[in-house]
Design goal:
51% of the residues lie in helices and 10% in strands. It is an alpha/beta fold and 395 residues long. The radius of gyration is 21 Å and the shape is globular.
Length: 395
């Protein structure tokens, strides 16, 4: 496995509250973290066959974020692959130069595993794992923030006032440009804030605008080219959070002001990590810089941002891996048999029973027959939208 021996470049002080913990501070921070009782619970859940005393000894023997990811996080993913996946596959890595830092922009399926799977695949291909963008809304305890920053995460500040939001966006963008251009490290960020609940993946224009703030002396296109954006399409055969996402739609349909609690986020993280996924596929696509060069220099700024979003979306939509679950959901939702040759009647019946059993997991509220019908259709949309978007992308 590749060993990272380059001297770490420490970011300027203005990024100190959002950047990953420096390797020079790693041992001290991990020593504090292992004393938290919650870490024992997490360790037991993720690695039940690994005594905590042994895990504690292993953690105390680490000295860098790279060692933490390659020794601990990869072992955790290995265990999850055995228990909750039939496969974790990838394609297109040959288009990604090992010596070039990239901004990997993906669709957003899972709170924790989108980036964890990516880092696992990169390390497995003898590459360095990337830094990870994570919203501070998920850092509900101090120990979680310490853990993710030891895992190469940098913080995205959310739920701020208007002026503070702009200040935070400038800081975040500046740090990302610094990481790519000075540290020469790759980063991961989702194409939108929060998971796309219906899997109709679209890049938020606000994300593209934010990415340009880190180098405002350049045009939008030139600023983004500095980041070497490389889209990745993430495809799940089964989304263990499908019923929780459908429940969110249901709650908001009943009360538009309904909001998730911190406990809801923690439950989504746990279900996403421990739930059955079938096959998960990552399709790496080339850096979009050549496509950005095709955008006319005199194009209106808003149209330029819109065009860039479309470039990223097309790369993601075109490269989804389509599973039988997608074909079945599409045919049921649109009440036809357009893709009946892709699955058997038994597989269709099994998938319908699967969706029903997922809804049975909602036990904190009483679901009426209409509620179940509503959630069922929302889950069909989740599984059919990747196919719908891929068909449109490939023409």
């Amino acid at each position: 496995m590749k060993t990272m021996t380059d001297k770490e470049i420490i970011p300027p002080i203005e990024y100190a509250d959002i950047c990953p913990i420096a390797d020079k501070d790693f041992h001290n921070e991990i020593s504090i973290l292992i004393e938290n009782p919650s870490l024992r619970k997490i360790g037991t859940m993720l690695m039940p066959e690994f005594p905590f005393s042994k895990l504690k000894k292993t953690l105390l023997g680490l000295n860098s974020k790279h060692e933490f990811q390659s020794v601990v996080m990869c072992k955790i993913i290995d265990g999850l692959l055995e228990k909750t996946h039939t496969a974790l596959s990838s394609s297109g890595l040959e288009a990604i130069d090992k010596e070039t830092p990239y901004t990997y922009v993906t669709n957003h399926r899972d709170i924790v595993l989108d980036s964890a799977h990516l880092c696992y695949l990169l390390i497995g291909d003898d590459r360095e794992a990337c830094e990870i963008a994570i919203g501070n809304n998920l850092l509900v305890y101090d120990w979680i923030e310490r853990l993710v920053r030891l895992n190469r995460s940098f913080i995205v500040k959310r739920n701020l006032g208007r002026i503070q939001t702009l200040t935070a966006a400038i800081q975040l963008s500046g740090y990302m440009h610094f990481t790519l251009t000075q540290k020469k490290k790759s980063i991961w960020i989702a194409q939108r804030e929060g998971r796309c609940k219906d899997s109709n993946d679209r890049t938020q224009e606000s994300l593209i605008k934010m990415l340009t703030y880190g180098n405002r002396d350049k045009s939008i296109v030139e600023s983004l080219k500095e980041l070497n954006i490389a889209p990745i399409a993430i495809s799940y055969e089964y989304d263990p959070n499908d019923y929780l996402k459908a429940k969110e739609f249901l709650m908001k349909s009943k009360n538009p002001n309904w909001k998730k609690s911190q406990d809801d986020d923690l439950l989504s993280m746990q279900v996403g990590i421990m739930g059955h996924k079938g096959e998960v596929h990552y399709a790496f696509t080339p850096c979009i810089n050549d496509e950005l060069d095709k955008i006319p220099a005199d194009l209106d700024k808003m149209l330029t941002v819109h065009r860039i979003c479309n470039i990223i979306d097309h790369a993601i939509h075109e490269n989804y891996k389509i599973f039988k679950t997608n074909y079945i959901a599409h045919d049921i939702l649109f009440e036809n048999n357009d893709f009946a040759d892709k699955y058997t009647a038994e597989e269709k019946e099994a998938f319908t029973k699967y969706l029903s059993s997922q809804m049975d997991k909602v036990t904190d509220i009483k679901l009426s027959e209409f509620d179940r019908f509503y959630m069922f259709n929302k889950m069909l949309q989740m599984y059919s939208n990747p196919l719908t978007n891929k068909l449109e992308a490939i023409g």
